[in-house]
């Protein structure tokens, strides 16, 4: 099992202990240079999927989150050093639960960057009881319920909101009669998360849902499902998968000569899809929640500068790396505004002060409040042209 922050963690722990011993009387504010006067180290947990069913997108996401914390080395946040303690749970809910308990009890983290829908939803009662702010890679609509999930924060549009926005775009742009749609998803909490909400929204907007097919998260063949779907001849099919199954769907659809327009939600979208889907990816439309590294945006400057210190290049990274970076950045921005940056309650309060946080174009601005932890409902759309995703909308909602 791959350990996140191997050598760096050991160095940072030593720095944190030495800094804590040196004391410091005044509470810092925002970013400061670490000069040996740190009050201590605030620890954050990372529950990542590197080798499981969503490891194709989970690995670059984890790397982006790690990189953001690494970029803060030598900085004080509200007078404290920060570090992340993360590991691979291989997309297994029992492993996530074990890891959560370790992070809470042994590592004594103040907040956590999580990952999957099934594990995030399974943990939310514990998260609430333990008062640990939790920003996950899951954008499940269920996490919007602040009474049940008072410490969960959604850093991007929910899967349901993504699907609603895609359906709204279909309604506004389809020509030639009333459009019909199908859904292709996997039989996990992640896969099923937006389906009922999307079906309801389609019905409310006069769009007929003619079919839905379940395709395994790691499927290498989707021929039978696509043949069944073809009988209903949908104009559009919305995909809720990661890169691997999405590539399988697109390749088999091309082989079968299916001309349905495929639209993937955010984890189906990204550069990692193109090498495995090949020319079958041409014309695929993806929901974009976070920027591509090749976009000329102000927020890319700090990532580029950090990578240069590591002898790496921005063009070597992908969109999911940006996604992990942004999730970690949002958490730390909340810590900066916290009255007490060392506790979960304090960091939650800081996150709830974020209002239209400008992420330099890396993602839609996010806002939280004491009664709303859904940061945004905005997405963009991109189409694969000549082997590259090209954005063709501004940020849109529904």
TrEMBL record:
One Pfam family matching this protein: Peripla_BP_6
Keywords tagged on the record: Signal
Signal peptide region: 1-19
Domain Leucine-binding protein: 41-388
InterPro entries: Leu-bd, Peripla_BP_I
SUPFAM superfamilies per the UniProt record, alphabetical: Periplasmic binding protein-like I
Family: Belongs to the leucine-binding protein family.
PANTHER family attached to this UniProt entry: BLR6548 PROTEIN
Protein's name according to its UniProt entry: Amino acid/amide ABC transporter substrate-binding protein, HAAT family
Species, as recorded: Mesobacillus persicus
């Amino acid at each position: 099992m791959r350990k996140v922050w191997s050598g760096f963690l050991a160095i940072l722990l030593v720095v944190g202990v030495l800094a804590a011993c040196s004391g410091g009387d005044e509470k810092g504010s925002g970013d400061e240079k670490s000069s040996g006067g740190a009050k201590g180290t605030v620890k954050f947990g990372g529950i990542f999927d590197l080798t499981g069913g969503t490891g194709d997108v989970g690995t670059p996401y984890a790397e982006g989150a790690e990189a953001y914390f690494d970029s803060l080395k030598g900085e004080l946040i509200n007078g404290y050093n920060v570090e992340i303690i993360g590991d691979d749970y291989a997309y297994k809910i029992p492993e996530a639960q074990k890891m959560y308990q370790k992070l809470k009890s042994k590592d004594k983290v103040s907040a956590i960057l999580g990952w999957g829908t099934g594990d995030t939803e399974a943990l939310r009662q514990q998260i609430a009881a333990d008062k640990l702010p939790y920003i996950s890679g899951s954008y499940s609509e269920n996490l919007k319920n602040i009474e049940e999930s008072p410490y969960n924060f959604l850093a991007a549009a929910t899967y349901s909101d993504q699907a609603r926005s895609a359906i709204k775009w279909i309604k506004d742009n389809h020509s030639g009669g009333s459009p019909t749609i199908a859904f292709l998803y996997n039989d996990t909490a992640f896969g099923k998360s937006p389906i009922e909400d999307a079906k309801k929204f389609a019905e409310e907007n006069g769009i007929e849902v003619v079919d839905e097919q379940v395709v395994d998260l790691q499927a290498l063949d989707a021929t039978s499902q696509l043949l069944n779907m073809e009988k209903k001849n949908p104009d559009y099919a919305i995909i809720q998968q990661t890169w691997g199954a999405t590539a399988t769907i697109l390749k088999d659809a091309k082989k079968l000569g299916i001309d349905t327009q495929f639209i993937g939600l955010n984890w189906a979208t990204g550069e990692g899809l193109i090498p495995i889907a090949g020319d079958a990816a041409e014309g695929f439309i993806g929901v974009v929640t976070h920027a591509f590294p090749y976009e000329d945006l102000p927020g890319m400057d700090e990532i580029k500068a950090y990578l240069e210190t590591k002898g790496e290049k921005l063009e070597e990274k992908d969109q999911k790396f940006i996604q992990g970076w942004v999730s970690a950045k949002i958490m730390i921005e909340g810590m900066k505004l916290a009255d007490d940056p060392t506790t979960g309650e304090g960091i939650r309060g800081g996150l709830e002060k974020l209002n239209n946080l400008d992420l330099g174009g890396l993602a839609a601005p996010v806002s939280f409040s004491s009664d709303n932890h859904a940061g945004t409902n905005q997405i963009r759309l991109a189409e694969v042209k000549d082997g590259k995703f090209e954005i063709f909308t501004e940020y849109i909602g529904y």
